[in-house]
Write a structure and sequence with these properties.
Distance between the termini: 35 Å
Largest sheet: none
Number of strands: 0
Helix content: over 70%
Shape: elongated
Radius of gyration: 29 Å
Number of helices: 7
């Protein structure tokens, strides 16, 4: 219950930014780029409000009473306004920054996922290549045996299948492995397409600034 109240309250606090009137003098920059001061201020505000909400929610011990929730929300909203003023960020500006920070975060996480997937894909393809070579070798052996007119293959792990049966099985395995490669390549292509689309919309400068506030990205990038 404590976690639920905290999440709901935090969502309402930041959603309130949209509903509240903004100072008319603030306008988005013509180049559409955030500054490092804005990004730092945005993360500072969100951290302060989130930390305060967590403390207040723990003090209420998850009390679901509407009055308690309203009091927590009001206190968090007051802290948010104070934090915004300290950071020198306008209400409308805060919303604008948040949209671009979210865009940068999505791009960074997708890039990290792509890197991890590429690393795992390389290992998978290596194993697939070895398995394909082994399966194709069996196909060649069975075809040669049948060409030579051999009828009874030696038992393999207790199997008494004919050359025809073994050949069909080996060919099916080759096909399965080839299909596996195709599927992996299709997934990689889809991820690359998603990354390209995100990068086309998100300026590199935004990625660089936001990444500094997301240490988890560094861990993900390590694979």
């Amino acid at each position: 219950m404590t976690q639920r109240l905290s999440v709901v309250a935090l969502s309402l606090v930041f959603a309130a930014v949209i509903a509240q009137p903004s100072r008319a003098e603030w306008q988005p920059p013509k180049d559409g780029l955030m500054t490092e001061k804005q990004v730092n201020g945005y993360f500072q505000v969100t951290k302060e409000v989130a930390a305060a909400l967590e403390r207040d929610t723990l003090l209420t011990q998850g009390d679901p009473d509407a009055k308690t929730a309203a009091a927590v929300l009001a206190a968090a909203d007051a802290r948010r306004k104070t934090a915004l003023a300290k950071a020198g960020i306008d209400e409308k500006e805060f919303q604008w920054i948040g949209e671009r920070v979210s865009e940068a975060e999505r791009t960074l996480y997708t890039l990290a996922f792509q890197k991890r997937h590429a690393s795992r894909l390389a290992e998978t393809l290596k194993k697939n290549g070895r398995d394909q070579a082994a399966a194709k070798q069996k196909v060649a052996e069975y075809e040669q045996a049948m060409k030579e007119g051999r009828k009874t293959p030696p038992q393999d792990g207790g199997s008494d299948k004919s050359y025809e049966q073994r050949l069909a099985q080996a060919k099916a395995e080759v096909q399965r492995l080839e299909d596996e490669v195709t599927e992996h390549q299709n997934v990689a292509a889809r991820i690359a397409k998603d990354v390209a689309e995100l990068l086309a919309k998100c300026p590199p400068r935004h990625l660089e600034m936001v990444r500094k506030h997301l240490p988890v990205i560094e861990e993900l990038m390590k694979g």
